[in-house]
Structures are given as C-alpha cells and as structure tokens.
Amino acid sequence: xxxxxxxxxxxxxxxxxxxxxxxxxxxxxxxxxxxxxxxxxxxxxxxxxxxxxxxxxxxxxxxxxxxxxxxxxxxxxxxxxxxxxxxxxxxxxxxxxxxxxxxxxxxxxxxxxxxxxxxxxxxxxxxxxxxxxxxxxxxxxxxxxxxxxxxxxxxxxxxxxxxxxxxxxxxxxxxxxxxxxxxxxxxxxxxx
Length: 192
Hints:
The chain is α+β, with helices and mostly antiparallel strands. About 35% of the residues lie in helices and about 25% in strands. It has 7 helices and 9 strands. The protein has helices at about 5-15, 50-60, 70-75, 85-95, 135-150, 165-170, 175-185; strands at about 20, 30-35, 35-40, 60-65, 100-110, 110-120, 125-130, 155-160, 170-175. Strand 5 and strand 6 (about 110-120) form a beta hairpin.
C-alpha cells in the first residue's frame, strides 16, 4: 500500500476493523493491521487513580478539542520509534478536516503539553496515539476523552493494542471476534 491510500479508503479500513501502520516514520510504505487480540477501553471502565484525580482537580491546564490536530499528530510522531510516517500524517489531517478525526489537547500557558488523537465513525472512537511533554498530560487528555465518549453516546473505544500503560488505566484485551461484534454495534449507532 503506498501513497494511493485516500482518506475515504482509510475510513473504510476502520469500518472493516483494520488500520494502517508503517514500519517506521522514514518508511513510505503502509500495511494494514488486524490484530488477533484487540485492545479496547470499556466506556465506563477508565481507572482514575487517586493521584490522577488530584492532578485533574488542580486545573492548572486548559483542555481544547481539535484546535491543533496536526500539532498533536506531530508530537505523537516525535519519538525515536514511530509508525507515523508522512503519508499517515497527511491522511489523518485530511480526516480531521472532514470532521472524522479529532484531538484532545492539554495546554498550559499557551503551550501544548499533551494530547491524544483518533478517528470517529458512528459510535466508535479509534484511538491512534498520545503524547506527554509533562507528567500525566496524556493521562489527563485520556480522562477528558473518556468523559466525552461516555456522555456523547459512544459505544466503542478501540486502542488497537493493549500496552501496560493502557491496562493500568482500565483498558483490556478482547478477541478479534468480540471486537467485530462491538464494532458492528458501534458503527450502527450515531454519537456526537
């Protein structure tokens, strides 16, 4: 799969339960991924630790939605190992322009310190990546994202893979078959 991938084809991939990746940020090729075990966040299952709750209540930050989408994707790719190449960057920015991809951004004193982004279709949110430039900034973004998903009718939060970090926040792994069932349900419903 090369640069011929369109934003619409990318969205169709998500509807079919697959998503694109590249080997690394310098590789121009993309490939579709369909994990046997899929990471998801149960919509009511976000684990808010006492320390994170205290951190959220401090409110020495500002939360914005999709005001700096490209900056969030760039920040997510700004690490030694990243699967976000130029093609992926451009495709997701195109999806954002069409209202099909969104970012939750955490700002302090006008500086972007953390965020998360993903794709939206029906009542499904497909989480792509997150970053933190300050302690807990990505967790704060996730907490706000979970709140929005829960209160706006979302049924599925796909994390693609389960990492230790996500598991510590309440994410879990399900089979491909369970995932397809949840995906079908979520795609048949509207959410905001």
